[in-house]
Amino acid sequence: MAELTGAQMVMESLVREGTEHVFGIPGGANLPLYDAIPQYYPKVRHYLVKHEQCAAHAADAYARVSGKVGVCFATSGPGATNIVTGIANAWMDSVPLVCITGAVISALIGRDGFQEADITGITIPITKHNYLVLDVAEIPKVIREAFHIASTGRPGPVLVDIPRDVFQQKAEFVWPEKVELKGYRPRLYPDPAEVAKAAELIAEAKRPVILSGHGIIISQAYDEIRELAEKANIPVITTLLGISGFPGTHPLYMGMPGMHGMYWNNIAIHESDLLIAAGMRFDDRITGRLKDFAPNAKIIHMEIDPAEIGKNVRPTATLQGDVRNSLRELNKHVQHVERPDWFARIEGLRRDHPSITIRETADVLPQYVIQKLYEVTGGDCYVVTGVGQHQMWAAQFFWYDKPNSFVTSGGLGTMGFEVPAAMGVQAAKPGELVWSVCGDGGFQMTMQELATIAEYEWPIKFAIINNNSLGMVRQWQQLFYSNNIVATPMRNPDFVKLAEAFGVLGLRATCKEEVEPVIRQAMEHDGPVVCDFQVKGDENCYPMVPPGASLGETVDLPTYEDERVEVTA
Amino acid sequence: MSQRDKIQPHTIIALVEDRPGVLNRIVSKWRQRGFNIESLAVGHSETAGLSRMTFVVDANTDAEQVVKQVDKLVDVVNIRDISTEEIVSREMAMIKVRVDAGNRSHIIEIADLFRASIVDVSSESVILEVTGDEAKVDALFELLSDYTVIELVRTGRVAMLRGSAVSHPRDEDEEPERFQGFEPPYSVK
Ligand SMILES: Cc1cc2nc3c(=O)[nH]c(=O)nc-3n(C[C@H](O)[C@H](O)[C@H](O)COP(=O)(O)OP(=O)(O)OC[C@H]3O[C@@H](n4cnc5c(N)ncnc54)[C@H](O)[C@@H]3O)c2cc1C
Ligand SMILES: Cc1ncc(C[n+]2csc(CCOP(=O)(O)OP(=O)(O)O)c2C)c(N)n1
Ligand SMILES: [Mg+2]
């Protein structure tokens, strides 16, 4: 092959890795890369965003729903530091991302060159790996490795930093046949002895539950997890990130556990004698007070990352490997067991503690908006969320039958994710309906991207759950800081006018009667729409495990005579 | 946990790619937890391109999780905590002591006692080189405190397993199955 410039090598490597969409912003240090973009059009399409954080979030969401590696470009210095939040978000939620940043010319590195930031140093703790490329000939190998590392084992972000002069130098393009990394060989298949032990535990269990996590979606083990649940007759709880890994309307489905999980789930976990954890990492939002987590349960942990095994809980059986492989093996050994007492107990909890009922009110309850969204869409759409109360309600009041249709920021909890993530989803799924359930706070962190959305004509529907408040934080102030409300009420802009300024349709609902028509009108419109749902501002999100409490101490829905429920930490 | 673990610090050995940044990546994992590294020795291993490290960290450190996280680093071929294994561990120290005609012979006597060698002599000072475990180096330093110690420098501990065992069994031996590439959705062409 003829000699290519470093920039052309990057683009050529992206094409070979199957990258079709890239999000980014140009600048001095990555200009040579942008110079090469037109030569690779339309194989690779670049979307210009308005803030690099959004390039990273868009690439992140793109990766989550497409199953491909998300790619973003940023320039040196401020461009690179702007993607840091996006990288951390992908790191926490195990999302495969390759971020390509321009660096100052090699001669200036380490000399405080104009717009220099040590981005490889900065991102060490939040990347699976990163590279500073100083030899142009290395680019194909580095990009190949970056994609391999990002997408295999436990996925995660990889950053490749390339100085401007290296982008401009030329060398022969040599695509490595295979990736050779001595220190990186994820284990994919579980130990058969552990599989047998797990099958035995399942056969003996009286009160088992399945905790199905993000790993199920990552490995696309939808059929396998369902087979396990149905074959062994075990109820399924999905983590926040595990939502849409198991059909939401399946009779064995029980919803989410943890801090804002269903009351019945938290009690069931607390009483369980066997937790079958599949691709989930026992986050502290799920376990509550760790030392009293599931006191009677043995644990089967199916997990690809050895550092997650034994981190928070000590499993009795460990199936280390790709959870899809582990489930396939395990499913061969499980048998149907009737569990009448256990199911009766769970039914009783559900009956006595209906965690997700929506009460009759004159005001528009946020939950009501989500419920209507579900009714009108029939669940046939992608739902993206921000972070806060609206996120929890979107998890609680919507039933996700469509695999991998719920996109949310779980581990980092990044407000502002809702806007750029919706772009990534829509770019990956052009013909599909994308609803972004936004906080009024989060929306205002990234709403400049409405310009990008209008430009690329992405027909995303935004549902702002407008409580004029940083609602989740306000809830904590109310419950745990003696109702001292500080810096959480907000005077918001007119979201309808704002949308119009961007060339986007703006709609508003101020009463219950308007909610459904607004949703329908938004869906009938071919372009992007911002819906401002003005909801009851002081609604709180329940059930709730107070900070420091165990799952057994979950507080269920209050009676609402007095909004302030007594919860002790 | 045996009595020995409680008092002994952790001895952790690692085989890593000899590349820029590798030390930073590894140390970053300890730093994140606020753990102090008592000593760290790095040098080439028996294999070209791979370096061998020995860390010593405080006994009270929850080393297990950090070791697992370090093991995940792409540049780290293998890392293990060998605190409870049968190991040989040594460190080397150089101690520069002020001498005069009156005490030179005393210091040489002390050096002999510790099988330390004198590697530099001037009219006003000598440099002692001593090899052994930390206790031995500590003891020598202690004895020399009756004189004027100008400088002390220690390499930090290096360690390996006793007997013919390989300290870092390569993955190939443990796990024959090679990585085949991830099935969808995250497939790499
Ligand atoms: C405001 C807020 C409130 C929240 N409240 C809750 C709550 O009430 N309940 C709740 O559940 N969460 C809640 N969360 C989310 C929580 O913080 C975690 O992000 C979430 O619980 C993590 O879910 P997970 O372990 O399934 O996914 P991840 O964190 O993505 O972990 C996935 C695990 O699967 C493993 N894995 C990946 N791929 C594979 C594979 N192929 N095979 C095997 N294993 C694999 C990974 O190594 C990892 O250990 C909340 C978040 C926010 C922001
Ligand atoms: C970037 C960022 N800053 C701060 C927070 C802390 N935080 C968590 S939830 C929340 C309130 C979110 O408000 P809004 O987006 O309006 O959603 P609501 O809770 O009202 O539904 C805040 C400030 C965060 N998660 N992310
Ligand atoms: Mg709000």
Offer a quick outline of the entry.
The complex is a heterodimer of chains A (569) and B (189). By secondary structure, chain A is α/β, with parallel strands linked by helices.
State the secondary-structure class of chain B. alpha+beta
CATH architecture label name of the largest domain in chain B:
2-Layer Sandwich
* Tally of individual helices of chain A: 23
Strand order of the largest sheet of chain A: 3-2-4-5-7-6
How many beta-strand runs of chain A? Answer: 19
Outline of chain B, from the CA principal axes? elongated
What portion of residues of chain B belong to β-strands? 25-35%
Number of domains of chain A: 3
The CATH topology of the largest domain in chain B corresponds to: Alpha-Beta Plaits
CATH topology of the largest domain in chain A: Rossmann fold
User: Major β-sheet of chain A, in short?
Assistant: 6 strands, parallel
Which segments of chain A are poorly predicted (pLDDT under 50) over 5 or more consecutive residues? Answer: 562-569
Helix run count of chain B: 6
* CATH arch. level architecture of the largest domain in chain A: 3-Layer(aba) Sandwich
Q: Ligands in the structure?
A: flavin-adenine dinucleotide, thiamine diphosphate, magnesium ion
How would you describe this protein?
The complex is a heterodimer of chains A (569) and B (189). By secondary structure, chain A is an alpha/beta fold. Chain A folds into three domains: 3-172, Rossmann fold (3-Layer(aba) Sandwich), CATH 3.40.50.970; 192-352, Rossmann fold (3-Layer(aba) Sandwich), CATH 3.40.50; 366-541, 3-Layer(aba) Sandwich (Rossmann fold). Chain A is built from 23 helices and 19 strands. In chain A, the strands form four sheets. In chain A, strands 3-2-4-5-7-6 form a six-stranded parallel beta sheet, with helices on both faces. A six-stranded parallel beta sheet of chain A has the order 15-14-16-17-19-18, with helices on both faces. Chain A is globular and about 70 Å long. Chain B folds into two domains: 7-84, Alpha-Beta Plaits; 89-158, Alpha-Beta Plaits (2-Layer Sandwich), CATH 3.30.70. With 189 residues, chain B is of the alpha+beta class. Chain B has helices at 3-7, 22-32, 63-72, 104-113, 134-144, 171-174, and strands at residues 10-17, 37-44, 50-57, 76-81, 87-98, 117-121, 125-132, 148-154, 158-161. In chain B, strands 5, 6, 7, 8 and 9 form a five-stranded antiparallel beta sheet that branches. In chain B, 25% of the residues are buried. The radius of gyration of chain B is 21 Å and the shape is elongated. Chain B has six helices and nine strands, in the order αβαββαββαββαββα. The complex binds flavin-adenine dinucleotide (FAD), thiamine diphosphate and magnesium ion (MG). Residues 93-94, 154, 213-215, 218-219, 239-242, 256-261, 279-281, 283, 285-286, 302-305, 308, 322-323, 387, 391, 410-411, 413, 472 of chain A line the site of flavin-adenine dinucleotide (FAD).
